[in-house]
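Worked Example 4.2. Read the sequence first, then its structure tokens.
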Amino acid sequence: MKAILVDQFGGPEALSYREHEIGEPGSGEIRVRHHAIGVNFIDTYHRTGLYPNPLPLIPGSEGAGEVISVGAGVTSFKPGDRIAYQGTIGSYCEERIMPAAKAVLLPDAIDYETAAAIMLKGLTAYYLLFLTWPVRAGETILFHAAAGGMGLIAGQWAKSIGARVIGTAGSPEKVELALANGCDEVINYTSEDFAVSVRELTGGKGVDVVYDGVGQATFEKSLDCLRPLGLMVSFGNATGPVTVPDLGILARKGSLFLTRPLGAHYFAERNALLAGAKALFGAVESGAIKPHIGQRFSLADAADAHRALEGRKTVGSTILIP
């Protein structure tokens, strides 16, 4: 089968489309034929080696497809089952072998492309909004990159809870998209100081929680957006890793809390994964979340997908079609 492989860490040109042998599933494993594959910023970290993995590497952490065969001891899936997954590297391929414990059955009402567009981003939104800081009606949150795949899902979901959602985005078009997907107000960070704008929008009080997947470029100003005892959730570093050399900054800015969560910890147990998937699929089926696929690329053009993502030229979710 065909796959995208990385032989040496580097830029998008490091993504090589070629034949790859995968064999048969072993104990506790399933073989999956992809119908759609999700693209996420974490894939670029794996490609560059920021998050190092053994080489050669098939990147990608999210996909949807059908089960082709199962290994010994697998009783929860059978050939022909429709499944989706996130959180296990190796999705940029036509077919793959993966741990059965990482997959979930896909409801009939959710198609493969939608599933590939929401699994990683949607389950991240789930743990951020319901576990890291259980958002309650009436609270105010700030969500950076509100027009991205994660931002559109999180904005809609938070709004359905009853939160006031303030977002940031980098162009007038992205501002409008975020406003149409759950945000009450959206700040264009290319023309406004978002920290000043947040203070104005909240009457000087600040927000209860900031969700920041941007990283270095937004971290310190995000602290200025929080009310005393508020929580800074740094869940990504698209602009570079965050460093906090002086913890006293948290005290000076209001005895703030800071966390750097990972889905691998929230979904370490299968019951937690199933609970998150049930909540996510339910939100999609009810209409609380309306997934937005902004870009589709062929698997062979994965490098172009990475260039678009890193160049801030994407909106919503990006998927690859094998």
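Now turn to a second chain, presented in exactly the same format:
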Amino acid sequence: MLTTVLTILPIFAIIAAGYACRRGGILGATAASEFNRFVVYLALPALLFDVMAGVKWSAIWQPGFIVAFSAGTFGIFAIAFFLRLRRGQPAADAAIDGLNAGYANAGFVGFPVCEAVFGRESLALATIAAVITVCALFAVAMVIIEVGLQSEARPHHVALKVGRSLARNPLLISPIAGLAWAMTGLPIPAPMESLLHMLGGTATTCALMSLGLFLANGARAQGRPDKAVLAFSGLKLVGQPALTAVVAYGVLHLPPVVAGMAVLMAALPTGTGPFMLAEYYDREAVATSQTILITNALSVITLAVCIALIR
């Protein structure tokens, strides 16, 4: 267990550094947003393109991994969504609550954790998990929110809006572009490869700093977490990896490394995506920010336990 903790400790140390810089006034209130924009539009797309451009088709064609991770992700989202609907929540708010419970931080925390545990060759599967989370799950939530906020359901308008949003998403465009490049069989030109390595090399540090800054801003939210926030946190840190493990090990009988990757990605804390969506649609975001804060704080322990069990 000590070895496992030491493996992921540097990752959370960078998050803590970002948190301390914000709370200590070294970085301002807008720093989290600026770091996040740099990661989303430059650093992480460069890393995703670089990984996918050099990957072999056999490394990413892992239908078992896709099914297992998707089952945990969409299963927990559906559980939280329908539970909140039964509590009388509007569909738009219930969709955001579903994201609180099922939206793994695959982009910001998943890449450094997977690389530390499984090595750089695991980043192809981590990219698949990120695309499923950031694009597929996000698209489902957006459709539900758009329909829920309209007095008359207009499917073609909803489809166009979601389609435009996904078409502009750099975390979807970059791995697809990288895969398209890989299919050509052409080597990446040296200057372009240097640029990708320089930008991609900053993705991990800047993403973790951004998360720490965001958590510091969220920690200022007043009020104690209610039962719903605790339920979302439990579903995220325990329910999602448990459901993924049942599918990966018990149903599909995946190879240990592939199954372990799926479970580890499912065990990640809640990412900042639900908060961004809540802010964009002007929905209540206190529960979301509290869930992100709690899951990221507790994930130091839960991820160490998960990694120890996988190993």
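Notes for the reader: The chain has one domain: 2-18+35-214+224-310. The chain has 15 helices and no strands.
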